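Notebook, bench 3.
Goal today: get a predicted structure for Peptidase m36, fungalysin from Natrinema pallidum DSM 3751 so we can plan the truncation constructs. The sequence was checked against the plasmid map this morning, with no discrepancies at the termini. Length recorded as 173 residues. Pasting the sequence as submitted so the record is complete.
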Amino acid sequence: MSNSKGPTADTGGPYTVATGGTIGLDGSNSSGKQLTYSWTITSGPGTLQNASTQTPTFDASGVTSDDTATIELTVTGKKGNTDTDTTTVDITDSSSPPTADFTYSRKNKKVDLDGSASSDEGTIQSYEWDVGADGTIDYTGQTVSKKKIPSGTQVKLTITDDDNETDSITKTV
């Protein structure tokens, strides 16, 4: 608790950082004589670098989804009096889901399917083809060649990226 003779802690914030990123915290609005700083994460993910300085760094490099960390700053003044302030760091998922797309070509009764038109900022880990859009995975892989698929059949492509996010598209071939 603040007292009239002691220091006053001020964490700044609240702060926002993307998953995998870092952000500087700023206790420079704290007041008092000859302050020492002690920052701690009281709940949530992440790590602190230089936690005994006025401006430590919050590191969300190991965080992969939306979350919130609660950060506490304790300042200690010249005479040993302390004050504490708390703030939050909102961690927002910086990844985008993939976008499924495919092309096809028909030669008589045989169809070639090509999922290379699909995209993701990361890596697409799997391609699953559901011919007839009946919920059964008939083929896997980015391309499927020379399969007998009747004209007018619905084909659903579902892709999954390296963040385990998915997208699907259905076309009539």
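Residues 34 and 79 are 9 Å apart (CA to CA). Residues 103-172 form a domain with the Immunoglobulin-like fold (CATH 2.60.40.10).
Flagging this for group meeting.
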